[in-house]
Amino acid sequence: MDDQKDHSSPQGSVAAAAGPVPTNVMGLSPVFTDPLWRISVRLNPVEVDLLRTAPLRRLHFVAHGGASTLSTLQSYSRLEHTLGVLALVAHFRPEDQLLRVAALLHDVGHLPLSHTLEGISGLDHHALGLQLLRTEPLRPALEKHGISAEAVIAALGVQPPSPLTHRSGLLNLDHLDSYVRSGRAAGRLDTDPAVILGRLDLKEAAVSADRATAASLVGLVCAEARLHTSWDNVGPVSAVRRLACRLLDHTTLDPDRLARMTDPQLWSAFDSCAATRAESAMIRYELHRLRVTAGGAPGDSSGWAFSLRKIYRSAPLVEGQRIEVSAPELAAELDALRALPTTFRVRWS
């Protein structure tokens, strides 16, 4: 029929091709829509430029869940989380350009597999992020739009308290996105994230919720803590850390180069090194053989020791008040997380 297009022809293909999807992560259309929160963000020119820099693009190839992506379905990237935090800032503080930029840049220092390799050879993603902000290509991208790297660094600091990095035990926007995004991946959400968002506010640079929503958030915090202390996290994380240390010991790779790898590059390096190749394959294809024991028996020298660096217990405000005052039963749930094990013995069966 005359009105049918020949989609096999170049002209037909162009005519039929869809435009950039609303969830674009390259700024090819003026709006980014976060699929979790369903917040549409009209991107500013500086945000578009930053999304096209190598440090931001790299986060698309770094798993937010770290090595636990091997044992769970938390397969989303560090960039997806970063854009989620941008969406939250744009929702609560739409006109705060500096805070929006800080949201985009708050995780640029992350190592491959995110927190998995933190601390190896003294590597710290916060310090690495500050270095990246002060150098190319991020510094000139910011200065092009009249924003100094030092201003962004200040927006990520402790004082004055920032809704991105509140470190007084209160829930900030960075952790809010992490808990809810992880909860979705694990099937733990009992409420639509967009509904949760409508019940939240920022008070004193911290997330505040009504009592029922605060209870849901505390449930997500506790579930995440239990995940971090479980076999699903301890097993793969401890094994990959061991491989990374061996890689540094047996190759010319230095810690700075390791820190800037993507996840695929790290696995390729493991496969290319004789000292890590066999166990790298075991971690990916025979992970069920890992055995994890909390604490470990006295004198047990089998396998290797592993300690969690920290367990996150950040609490939302409840109707603007500290949770200890307004909902002591929820505060008790968070306090009970102190009893979770943080030291383990791990071995291959």
Automatic annotation (TrEMBL):
Superkingdom of source: Bacteria
CDD domains tied to this protein: HDc
Sequence intervals crossing the membrane: none
Ranges for domain HD/PDEase: 74-215
One Pfam match: HD
UniProt xrefs under SUPFAM superfamilies: HD-domain/PDEase-like
Name of the protein in its database record: HD domain-containing protein
